Amino acid sequence: MLKDITLGQYYPADSILHKLDPRVKLFGTMIYIISLFSFRGIPAFVLATIFLISIIRISKVPFSYMVKGLKSIVVLMIITGIFNLFLTQGEVLVQIWVFKITYEGIKNAVLMVVRLIYLIIGTSLMTLTTTPNQLTDGLEKALMPLEKIKLPVHEIAMMMSIALRFIPILVEETDKIMKAQMARGADFESGNIIKKAKAMIPLLVPLFVSAFRRANDLAMAMEARCYHGGHGRTKMKPLAYGVADRKAYVVLVVYFVLMLVLRFVWVRFVG
Amino acid sequence: MSIILDKVNYTYSAGTAYEIQALKNINLKMEDGQFIGIIGHTGSGKSTLIQHLNGLMKATSGTIYYNGEDIYAEDYDLRQLRSKVGLVFQYPEHQLFETTIFDDVCYGPKNQGLTKEEAGLRAFEALKSVGLKEELYYQSPFDLSGGQKRRVAIAGVLAMRPEVLILDEPTAGLDPKGRDEILNLVSAMHKERKITIVLVSHSMEDVAQYVERIIVMNHGEMIFDDAPHEVFKHYKELEKIGLAAPQVTYLMHELSENGLPVDVNATTVSEAKDEILKALGRKVC
């Protein structure tokens, strides 16, 4: 039942992308998103496509997994497409009553939808190749300089990793509680909204009780092991850049510079 | 009246990197009124198996018949099935939610569509049969001890008057006294009500002296399905899969190897005592 939901959606595989330092991947995703929303013209678009395809190939994650992420934003894509199609001013191609389809509208609609697709595939590539723990580790290390302005970086990262860790546990727990109540004849599907909301009580009460109990136990276990925040705390596997990470940074910078140059050239000479 | 499983297979997360086949070609017939023990260590598929029996999980392939009807048929009422095949899960914390114990036990019967009075009567009867003190009926279920919570959970299912009662590790996490109490309670229910009982456990010791039939699961496969003393004859194979026969079995085997003429099929302490006394030529007392 609920087990089929992929949360955090890490896909284990043995690829260079999986082994990269999470900071590289975070930085790379950022660069990629900026490049997506700033590029102009066909050559830049082709370059972004080549970049995306080669990363997909390197990651060794089945393409169907990335498509799964797209399903959730189909509605958003359709709305974006329609708005861009009808609300862009320009050279009118077809006019039905007050609705106009312009040449620029078609162009914008296609562009926006493609950008959204690339965005989702690109970011899901990061979450597919990085475990949530690596991600928070990377984030903690990358944000460390902010500690100087009294931002509790370690605490934020710890809270994030605990929250992420608890998601699958609570999903599993929900599944078990649902089954236990269904065995007693509970019906979560039929009836109107009020009836459905009422049917949730036997599910939510045990879930909350269990969440509080787990939180209490975890706090106790952390206390027992003398946890006192990030000050002076060392890591078992400290993050360190390797050769592959440096190469990846170079690739990313080259890609970004190329994208900027292409944008500049396109704006200057094509319009 | 029986449950028949025909070539049941179940695969978790089919088609992904996390694919696990939890049940492999299970063929099984559970007769009415039997007291059955399902044994296997963690991850052997025993919990998956019992969740198929009341339709909470749907087999990837294969069919299950309850009283001759295919439970996967389109017009089959699964909720009806669940009130006939009662399943008590391992952790009572997963089902207790009401403000009082009494109301909590009423939840099942109310879902069956009974009136408040009828549900109350059923709850009263169920709580009485699990031996919970009456002064506790209107207290919060969250204040109870582990053993008492388990009794309330069993009562919660019993109040639906199931024809088959399945208990998933009812003794896990209980002290020896609580364990004996729960098992004696279940055994007494089997004798009085003549309902089919399926007891899931990873401990042979628990199950041996109560059940009449043992099903041993390993890696999703059913490897033994026989009377307890027949299953315990394979105690060497059981050890290989991380289970063990009751200590009595080992004792009897060693005694007979060392020349004392005892019946190695004795499975409980009292049977063993009788056997040893008989072998020593003393009067059975």
For the termini of chain B, the CA-CA separation is: 41 Å
Q: How would you write the strand order of the largest sheet of chain B?
A: 6-7-8-3-9-10
Spatial sequence of strands, sheet with the most strands of chain A: 1-2
Envelope shape of chain B: globular
Can you tell me the number of structural domains of chain A? 2
For the largest beta-sheet of chain A, the strand count, sense and barrel status come to: 2 strands, antiparallel
Structural class of chain A: mainly alpha
Report the major sheet of chain B: 6 strands, mixed
| Gap between N and C termini of chain A | 53 Å
Shape of chain A: flat
Continuous helix count of chain B? 11
Instruction: Name the helix and strand elements of chain A from N-terminus to C-terminus, one letter apiece.
Output: HHHHHEEHHHHH
Output the radius of gyration of chain B. Answer: 20 Å
Explained architecture:
- Chain A is mainly alpha-helical and 271 residues long.
- Chain A folds into 2 domains: 160 residues, no CATH class; 76 residues, no CATH class.
- Chain A is 70% helix and 3% strand.
- Chain A is built from 10 helices and 2 strands; from the N terminus they run αααααββααααα.
- Chain A has a two-stranded antiparallel sheet with strand order 1-2.
- In chain A, a hairpin with a 2-residue loop joins β1 and β2.
- In chain A, α4 packs across α6 and α7 runs antiparallel to α8.
- The N terminus of chain A is likely disordered.
- Chain B is of the alpha/beta class and 285 residues long.
- In chain B, 38% of the residues lie in helices and 22% in strands.
- Chain B has a 6-stranded mixed β-sheet with strand order 6-7-8-3-9-10, with helices on both faces.
- In chain B, α3 crosses α4, α3 runs parallel beside α5 and α4 crosses α5.
- Chain B is globular, with a radius of gyration of 20 Å.
- The termini of chain B are far apart.
- The mean pLDDT of chain B is 87.
- At the A-B interface, α8 and α9 of A face α2, β6 and α3 of B.
